[in-house]
Amino acid sequence: MNLAVAPAAAFEPTLEAAQARLHAVSPADYARTRNHLEGRVTRLSPYLTHGFLDLAAVVRHLRDRHQLPPQHKLLQELGWRAYFQHVWRHEGERILQSRHPGPLPDEAYSRELPADLREARTGVAAIDLAVRALYRDGYLHNHARLWLASYTVHLRKVHWRAGADWMLGHLLDGDLASNHLSWQWVAGTASHKPYLFNADNVAQFAPAAWGCKGTSVDVPYELLDQRARQPQAWGPEPGEHAGVVEPVRSSHPPAQVFSVPDAAAVAGRDVWLVHPWSLGEVPAGALPVAVCDVDAHASWPWAQARWRFVVSRMQALTPLRWIGSTQALVHAMRTARSVRGWRNGHLPVAWNEVGLAAPPPAFDEPAGFCRSFSAYWSRVRVLHPSPQTEGDVS
């Protein structure tokens, strides 16, 4: 099976590449073409997830450079990212559980992805090409993510959590809040109804080779909705279909790039903490120390392409790169005069003891918890003013 979409331009793990991509964003083109697989989407997500750029600076840049009104579609989509973080802050690990019942009870779904899906040989072109693109690029257009998640949950009857965990490890932009809550939205456990797609939807937004005529998704939405509420699984398609090998995922980066924590190296120094979700600029005068917390990664293995993306940036930022448990790393940091850096939900909470700060908010954060995006967005549309801060990506 030939891929109809050429391999995406590589995500270079440099601040220059991130800023170039930001400056190339066309909000008008985004709004007009974003639903098409070949549309002008921003492709900023790996740089946002790993902290090359912070969301607040990106929002300021786009709003000020392009004079975007608060209701512009691009700002709203960035608002979804902020909303998922809002939910994560309020619900914590509960985002890893169904927020409310979906079309079927949780126990009706399998906890294992079938081999044909993992190996891109389901016989549904849009699904097989999406899986291949995921493995090849570490990235998927949002529409392809929705199709893949919908097929996995509603036709193959795989629990959304199994699909979300699998996809997270292969995405360069894999973020627990955005990824897992998006899968829940598709599954109908964080939304009012399941997200469904059919062959006509694929034909409208994808290249011809992604077409799904004559397959299990080539049916009306009414029938898809019925199938979503029935325990019977649909697929794979009859016949033999050539597949691919799933890339190996690992909980550890290349060992030779890191050393054990060395408290003496930071004793009495002002440290800036570099971690996989904070790979932006280092403030002047600070000693950058990169850490790989094995406890943070134990349950979330990554494909080697993602490890290379993160580690390459760490190598460019500092020669001090440590690997160890949360306890060992935090203990070593206590000899420093000060430790600064950005807090992140992927890090164990013990890191908050060393003085990490919350990243600057992109939108005015509601005081209370909003259970829906519409409630959240109606309360955050007034953006923060544009402070002239050092390192502003604009």
Automatic annotation (TrEMBL):
Q: Which residues bind FAD?
A: 30, 77-84, 173-175
Q: GO CC annotation: what is one?
A: cytoplasm
Q: Which SUPFAM superfamilies match?
A: Cryptochrome/photolyase FAD-binding domain
Source domain of life: Bacteria
Q: Name any Gene Ontology BP term.
A: entrainment of circadian clock by photoperiod
Cofactor binding summary note: Binds 1 FAD per subunit.
Entry keyword set: FAD, Flavoprotein, Lyase
Q: Where do the Cryptochrome/DNA photolyase FAD-binding domain residues begin and end?
A: 75-202
Cofactors (names)? FAD
Q: Which GO terms describe its molecular function?
A: deoxyribodipyrimidine photo-lyase activity; DNA binding; FAD binding
User: How is this protein named in the record?
Assistant: FAD binding domain of DNA photolyase
Q: Which organism is it from?
A: Thiomonas bhubaneswarensis
For this protein's source organism, the top of the classification is:
Bacteria, Pseudomonadati, Pseudomonadota, Betaproteobacteria, Burkholderiales
